[in-house]
Structure formats: C-alpha cells, structure tokens
C-alpha cells in the first residue's frame, strides 16, 4: 500500500526487499538464474566464492520474498532445483540492467575515482 511506510523507516518492507535483491549474493543469484534453473551446487559453482551457508540463506530469503521457486523432487538422492518466479524474473532483469550499465560506465567511474583520489592526495599534502 503506497504511502504506508516511508523509505527511511528501518523496518519498511520495501527497503527490506531492496536490500535482499541488491545484496552481494542476491544480485548474483538473480542474474545467474535468468539463464536457466540451477541445482544448488551448480549455482554455487557458477557464482563462485560464496559459502554454502550464505547461498542457502540468500536462496531462502529470495524464496520467502516470492522471487525464487524451490523445486524439491522426491527422488534419491534428493534433487532441488532453483528458478525465478515471474516476480523474480522482473527483479532480475532490473538488477541485470544495473549491472550492464555499471559494466558500460566502468571507465568513467575509474576516471572519477582517480580524479577524486588525486584531489584528496593533493589536499592532504597541501
């Protein structure tokens, strides 16, 4: 319900979802799942450098938010596949657009960083 919470409120539900979607691992999970469903171990390898615990927590959080579908198949050994829901696909496309923008603009960001660092260094010397 728009207007019910302000963006700055600590427990604002909108803010929590933004935090989940834009978290370090949330971004990578959403972007990776845009291509296809993954099993847990496949997703962990595709993302790289994420602990099993953090990936499990991220998937559970995104599933709770309705962004990820967890499909546990009753087979032996157990098989669990993760995929995006319609809502998750929409969020993932937005996150991917931001990631692609960052990639396209990285040279400009790097130049801005260098200029900033040069100004800060000169100010500290002067």
From TrEMBL:
SUPFAM superfamilies: Winged helix' DNA-binding domain (SSF46785). Pfam families: HxlR. Keywords: DNA-binding, Transcription, Transcription regulation. GO terms for molecular function: DNA binding. It comes from the Bacteria. Residues 12-110 form the HTH hxlR-type domain. InterPro entries: HTH_HxlR, WH-like_DNA-bd_sf, WH_DNA-bd_sf. PANTHER family: HTH-TYPE TRANSCRIPTIONAL REGULATOR YODB (PTHR33204:SF37), TRANSCRIPTIONAL REGULATOR, MARR FAMILY (PTHR33204). This is Transcriptional regulator. It comes from Streptomyces zinciresistens K42. The lineage of its organism: Bacteria, Bacillati, Actinomycetota, Actinomycetes, Kitasatosporales.
